[in-house]
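User: For my dataset I need records formatted as: sequence, then structure tokens, nothing else. Please produce one.
Assistant:
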Amino acid sequence: MFVRTPARLLLTQFFLCGVYLCEPVLAQQPPEELASFAKPSSRARESRWLPPDVDENIPPVEPGSACDLEEMLQKAGQRIQEFVRNVERFTATESLAHETINKSGAVSGTEKRRYNYMVSIEEIRPGAFDVQEYRRGSSSEDAPGGIITRGLPALVLIFHPYYSGNFSMKCEGLANFNGKPAWQIYFRQRADKPNRIRSYKIGENGPSHPVALKGRAWFVEDSHQIIGLQTDLIEALPDLRLTVDHATVEYGPVHFSSRGVDMWLPRTAELYSDLRAKRIHRRLSFTDYLLFAVDEKQKISSPNVSP
């Protein structure tokens, strides 16, 4: 039996790293202190515990390999729609390694967890998905660092037709991603569009703090399946003293023989955060995927009655 996590997650409240902060809400910070958190910290990256920002490190692409962005997004969007249709529910084994990073950028503490993990995705109304995540396992109520990680399955919805229009996108060309030719797409949250993908929240009933994302994704050249995704903050969140939120996710094909479908699902993820001057690094891996579905329409025959 899976134990449901404390809150219902709608697409307007997706969380990745730092969903619920199991600490008291911070008192209001002085304006001069908040000003120092206006933009993501460059000093954090200088310590070398953090990978380069997506705007600082642009992977090379083949010369003259531009693609038609509209066609690319159409095909990629179809794959994401297939993903949503196929994944009524799936389970996996989630392995988590949580590292605390000190001021010098060195690892000062490590914790590990292992969970039975379940996800369900449902379109509750046109244009809105309900994504539920459940965990059960070792120390399931003792979140390392007081932070619960959620939202990895939802990040691909950036490229769903419902939400892709909220981002400015550019096809940078054909790249090599882990030995596979893949189209490289840069994306950035538009200032004139609502941010409906990601937010942070303090406590179960605390206010939601939307996070504007930028990033880069890679899609297999011929199948247009997503194979990699990277995100960063566009701006820091002064109210939360959040200066770094970096994620890298790699996807791979998973075959579900029970339904005869192949889906590209998260295999590994690396998460980095600098929140309230606390730096963390998380490694996640997902194995032992199982898919199970419940048909909405079932034919019920009349009971057999003896003469």
